[in-house]
């Protein structure tokens, strides 16, 4: 096969390339064919990665003197031709090396198999697993960042919006929606940290470990790792090809399920409000909601349902990954691949749907405050004020506040409607229960009324991380800074992979089309 000589530089790197019409040039751009061949959201398929592994192996084996340069050149051109033909519509794209190798041998002859020196399907499968997970972890990270940005934006928008907070499904204390959303933002911070940790363990290369014990060829595993964009190698060759396949995939799948649990809890909070006759959280009508086919008054929360379903699918796929990998011998890697990938894909889909849902989430400030004012969640502060400002023992203050709630509910009164005289009577009775006869409520009526307001309780908060405006403002600034660092991290990771790809292409090009010998 005649391959045209180099004509132009590529991406300004100044290295030689084969003419645009050549098979090698097509091979260097082979990733574009993935979407047309069933790749999900631009993710590379097994055929693509076999091509990258072959390119890296040819470069390394030639550099190490394992494969003579003339055979390396012939093999590289055959690999390029197979990649180019596989990139064509309807082209063959086998994902098993034993099906791919005969296609290369048919072009370059049996000598082409020399590039497989020191390699096995075991380390190929182990490496495939990691690059598949690597791409998905980065996609997941970006989807997480996207949803995280929307959470922080809503937290800023509703920083001072007073809402009821619940424990055990019962209104507990007032807070602000900004405070609540920043709590969920903290969850997403931890998810991002776990992703970075998992990525660091995933992005280590098994290539060159062979079946489990390396080989007698002088394989440069670090060179293979660098060419394929890995940050290093899995040191122990048995671990690289065998054991690590189990826990690396399990960790990724478990990470997806952890994310899904948190997102599911958040969406459940929204859904609980949406189910009320007069909710204070709503979705904008349109693509996020749908009208019942028979009941015209209904606005079904499709967006909430979609996020919850995606979260459930992430958990289900993660459980499948663990079950499939369970009780299987280390030497059986075929059983431990796609399930973890599916879990990461489902988690990515979950975050993208969550982001869509957040874009249509609307809070009714007046309705939320009315919900707080209609109940007695501020009485915790009443007991605290009695102790702090009037030196009343906590249990007496707590007893008084509890009896006050009982009286108000029995008489269908809101906190603001309780007669001050009745509050005095109840306090005296509470004191008597603790041996304090004729105890008088040590708060005048204006102070008593003020203490029972949600605004007072929130403003009075002093602890770190509380709902008071100063703390919400501080936490929001911190959340934005951390998210900015997350966005920069994933971009840097992608840049490193792109740089490694360019380096591989240059090195492969140099083998397939070496410069003329100097005279």
Task: Give the helices and strands, then pairings.
Layout (H helix, E strand, L loop, with lengths): L22 H6 L17 H18 L5 H19 L9 H12 L12 H37 L4 E6 L2 E7 H26 L18 H7 L9 H38 L6 E3 L6 E2 L7 E2 L1 H24 L12 H22 L1 E3 L1 H9 L5 H12 L3 H17 L9 H14 L11 H7 L2 H7 L8 H44 L7
Helix pairs in contact: 2-3, 2-5, 2-17, 3-4, 3-17, 5-6, 5-8, 5-10, 5-17, 6-8, 6-17, 8-9, 8-10, 9-10, 12-13, 13-14
Q: Indicate the low-confidence ranges by residue numbers.
A: 1-24, 26-41
Beta-strand portion reads under 5%
Main sheet strand line-up: 1-2
What's the number of extended β-strand segments?
Answer: 6
Task: Look at the structure and name the CATH superfamily of the domain at 122-217 and 235-366.
Answer: Fumarase/aspartase (Central domain)
What structural category characterises the helix and strand content? mainly alpha
Please report the distance between the alpha carbons of the first and last residues: 26 Å
**CATH architectural arrangement of the domain at 122-217 and 235-366:** Up-down Bundle
CATH topology of the domain at 122-217 and 235-366: Fumarase C, Chain A, domain 2
Count of DSSP-assigned helices? 17
Largest sheet: 2 strands, antiparallel
Task: Supply the CATH class of the domain at 122-217 and 235-366.
Answer: Mainly Alpha
* Radius of gyration of CA atoms, rounded to a whole number: 32 Å
Element-by-element helix/strand order: HHHHHEEHHHEEEHHEHHHHHHH
The share of residues in helices is: 55-70%
Arithmetic mean of pLDDT:
89
